[in-house]
Amino acid sequence: xxxxxxxxxxxxxxxxxxxxxxxxxxxxxxxxxxxxxxxxxxxxxxxxxxxxxxxxxxxxxxxxxxxxxxxxxx
Amino acid sequence: xxxxxxxxxxxxxxxxxxxxxxxxxxxxxxxxxxxxxxxxxxxxxxxxxxxxxxxxxxxxxxxxxxxxxxxxxxxxxxxxxxxxxxxxxxxxxxxxxxxxxxxxxxxxxxxxxxxxxxxxxxxxxxxxxxxxxxxxxxxxxxxxxxxxxxxxxxxxxxxxxxxxxxxxxxxxxxxxxxxxxxxxxxxxxxxxxxxxxxxxxxxxxxxxxxxxxxxxxxxxxxxxxxxxxxxxxxxxxxxxxxxxxxxxxxxxxxxxxxxxxx
Lengths: 74, 262
Hints:
Distance between the termini of chain B: 27 Å
Pfam families (chain A): CbtB
Mean pLDDT of chain B: 88
Oligomer: heterodimer
Number of domains of chain B: 2
Number of strands of chain A: 0
Strand content of chain A: under 5%
Number of helices of chain B: 6
Low-confidence stretches of chain B: 46-59
Keywords (chain A): Membrane, Transmembrane, Transmembrane helix
Shape of chain B: flat
Low-confidence stretches of chain A: 1-9
């Protein structure tokens, strides 16, 4: 009983036991990274030759955010 | 604690961070943007190229009449779109990377390893790139060079972020080889060397012309504050949420151990 109480205050789980296997993490990371990059490009871009919506609508819409978040602009 | 825990907490922290960044950008940053645009409209910055031509209508102009999106929209809904989108994306990615860092950063417990991941994200993605390519107000920067400036900025951010990932690998190796303190020093040194070399190798961008230094300073401080507010909220909220989950899990395990011992 005394032993059980003492083990409840200091956990027997060490940080290394918590590590999530890389095999489990990999697909999330791949999609997360690609998605993050595409949003960053969409917000930061000037809608050049490769952008799907034509014109500069997105560029103008997020104009202030781009300046204040440090993305290159003009 | 699963990958899902970290991603959900990261997205939530990122949403809060986007709101915080909007509040700081709107209150501190927008007055500086307005001052810069007023200067541009007055034609005070002679070096500014993209309004020189007679047909400025196709390029983007900050004047009030012919803009596709009005200034009132740009400084409110537009600004909020930008800060929320970037906040959620950075928060979610920081959450996922914290899941990778869990149990892999020496003997750091979940809250500490999450806070460290957020700190490394802030330094490598925002602070260090800001030192090399600081934010510029409207009326600074030519429309003709924006493609190359964007490429340089992304290139430098990529080197910085990959550099910090490599530095963490170096730190873990050195920590196993010797111990925690030399490992941390080795990692920090590796990152410093990588970004120092990159900063020297990447070309300088200077298109300021005759832009007033005081407005430039105020704008850059407000931009840095916006970025720091975003990362501070990502780090604080994500760490708090991860710690809460960890404490609950620990309590459940302690109860189980207690029950098993009866």
